[in-house]
Design goal:
The structure is a single chain. The protein is an alpha+beta fold. The chain is built from seven helices and 27 strands. Strands 7-4-6-5-9-8 form a six-stranded mixed sheet, with no helix packed on it. The chain has a six-stranded mixed sheet with strand order 16-13-17-20-19-18, with helices on both faces. A five-stranded mixed barrel has the order 21-24-23-25-27. A hairpin with a 6-residue loop joins strand 8 and strand 9. It starts with a helix and ends with a strand. The protein binds adenosine monophosphate and magnesium ion. Magnesium ion (MG) binds next to loops.
Length: 401
């Protein structure tokens, strides 16, 4: 039986190298940049005001105070988007607004709140406070200088990175192509939500959850119909999904029970089984195989096992497929608010809820079928075999909310 890291290494070794495509920036959220992008211009592109107020010369108002305001003659008005025509000479100022370009001659912006305009003298601004040279001015290139690195190949495009690229004038961006991931749920007991439930039947809950996680990994889920526990149904469903998708994630039908057909179906279709067990809990049975250029991940049917093994072994593969640098779940430090125990012989990934202060609580019943604790959880903590981590232990929480 493979250790987790060995299993992951074998999976990553089978992931095809990322293909690239160009997409509109508006479509790029969550995608993985396939090229390093450098700033084509300075940001901001010109000196501009950080405030609503008046552009002036700091030296002119060095002595200003509320008791003895300095008088400046208003010599211009510059809206955002305009180009300043006139120079600000000593003893004068120009009205401007947040984002207005700085006029020549001025070296600072007086905040509107620190000035007064007397009704009887509309062309004069009374300055109540001094400013330092450069104050309230956003310098050209202060945010990013031309040539600076904006994103690295392998970075995922967050809202912030998309904003930066847009501000640099990028309309399109090269990203890793998204694998299409077929989702199969096997089990004759399963029914679609919305349908009546017969005796012994349960509602299928893995495909919708996995679809969320597939999307979260930047890939495209494709949901296939439920698969009954027969060799024929399993084989034809697998054949269909493998033909249509880059990867297939199935749940159920992978343990040693008599009605576990996924491994056999893969073999009958001419696929290669790479491994079928991983030394982790939950999720010991885990089939990984290959059919032509397509990968098959056969997850256990228990919903907790399916989700945990997806997060540990499938999510990294889908991210690597798109060329992502960071493929592990984000790890955050935490402190146990209660002990976490693992009596078993394999590492146990327990569902936890980390609060805002970093206190880590068990998310509830830690059984492989327990959905309430899955719903309450926002992370996983690995507890080594035959170990109890006492209260107040420092732990690493793998977050997956
Ligand atoms: P299996 O891995 O097929 O032996 O399934 C293990 C347990 O998980 C059984 O109790 C199944 O009924 C349940 N199960 C399997 N697949 C699903 C599913 N898609 N949704 C909800 N429960 C499932
Ligand atoms: Mg089953």
């Amino acid at each position: 039986m493979l250790e987790l890291q060995e299993a992951l290494a074998q999976i990553l070794a089978e992931v095809p190298s990322p293909a690239r495509e160009e997409v509109a920036l508006g479509e790029a959220a969550g995608r993985v940049a396939a090229e390093r992008l450098a700033a084509p211009l300075d940001l901001p592109p010109f000196d501009n005001s950080a405030m609503d107020g008046y552009a002036a010369r700091a030296a002119d108002v060095a002595a200003a105070c509320p008791e003895a305001p300095v008088r400046l003659r208003l010599c211009g008005h510059i809206a955002a988007g305009e180009s300043p025509a006139q120079e600000v000479l000593s003893g004068t100022c120009a009205r401007l607004f947040t984002g207005s370009p700085m006029p020549p001659g001025a070296d600072a912006v007086l905040m509107q709140e620190e000035t007064r305009v007397a009704p009887e003298e509309p062309g004069v601004v009374l300055v109540l406070e001094p400013v330092k040279p450069g104050e309230n001015v956003r310098r050209r290139g202060q945010d990013a200088e031309r040539g600076a690195k904006l994103v690295e190949a392998g970075d995922r495009l967050s809202a912030g990175r998309i904003s930066l690229l847009a501000a640099m004038g990028r309309a399109r961006v090269l990203v890793g192509r998204q694998p299409v991931v077929g989702l199969l749920a096997t089990g004759s007991e399963l029914r679609e939500p919305g349908q009546p439930l017969g005796p012994g039947q349960i509602y299928e809950s893995n495909r919708p959850a996995l679809a969320v996680l597939v999307r979260g990994a930047g890939a495209v889920p494709r949901i296939f119909p439920l698969v009954a526990d027969t060799p024929e149904a399993t084989r034809s469903a697998l054949a269909e999904a493998l033909a249509q998708c880059n990867a297939v994630v199935s749940t159920g039908g992978v343990s040693v029970g008599e009605l576990d057909f996924v491994k056999d179906a893969l073999a009958e279709l001419g696929g290669a089984l790479k491994f079928r067990r991983v030394a982790i809990k939950p999720g010991r049975p885990f089939v990984f195989g290959r059919w032509r250029e397509r990968l098959l991940f056969g997850l256990p049917g228990n919903p907790v096992s399916a989700l945990v093994t997806f997060l540990l072994l499938v999510r990294p593969a889908l991210l690597r497929w798109q060329g992502a640098n960071e493929i592990a779940l984000p790890a955050h430090p935490g402190v146990l608010a209660e002990p976490l125990a693992n009596a078993g012989v394999h590492p146990h990934f327990l569902r936890v809820r980390a609060d805002a202060a970093g206190q880590v609580h068990s998310a509830g019943l830690q059984a492989s079928h327990a959905l309430s604790s899955l719903a309450a959880a926002n992370g996983l903590v690995e507890v080594p075999p035959r170990t109890t981590l006492p209260r107040s232990s420092r732990v690493t929480v793998m977050r997956w909310e």
